[in-house]
Fold this sequence. Notes:
Blueprint: H1 2-11, E1 18-20, E2 26-28, E3 31-40, E4 59-66, H2 77-95, E5 105-111, E6 115-121, E7 125-126, H3 127-133, H4 140-159, E8 172-174, E9 180-182
Antiparallel strand pairs: 1-3, 2-3, 3-4, 4-6, 5-6, 7-8, 8-9
Domain Protein kinase: 40-200
GO molecular function: ATP binding; protein kinase activity
Protein name: SCY1-like protein 2
Amino acid sequence: MFNNVLNYLTSNKLVSSYQVDKEPSCYGNELRWKLYNAERQKSSTSGSAAAGPVGDDTSLTVFLFEKKTLDTRQYPKDYRDQILASLHREATVLQRLRHPNILSVIDPLSDERQTMAFVTRRVTQTLGTVLTTDRKQLSLIEVQTGLLDIASALEFLHHANTCHLGLCPSAIFLTPNGRWVLGGLAYSQSPVEPGMQLLK
Length: 200
């Protein structure tokens, strides 16, 4: 099993540019991505490594999706294609957004035969995981501050003419310093006039 995990991590060219923990720091039914703590290889020139402050981060998170989990023997091809498209959209939408309270992409999506992966600044877990495992670890101050963080992110999306449409605990990520950042933008859309269909 360990070798299988290692193969999937190293098979993606983007992931191979980083020193990645062998065990995910966060995963679950509510989150299709597996999150791995990572650090940039000293010799890496991948992505935004030379692009200024964003590329200077050393504590990072790799979002990895293994396509084998959508085996066509268990899932209809149309359903599989929809899931892959939503994951692709989630990563690409995040790439164009820059805000302190929105998940910050360091290296953009790498979509390969077996895996999809992208790299962000370090996050530790989702709010959904915390609420499921031990919600008492969140103090009242942390919750109040976190809600303000997410409100700020949603205000930014509003001014960017974007509706999230998927806000839930698993779309909120916690940073090592306890701040909340918004992700899960797979279903985000621009507002439409009443009676019009949402664009796909």
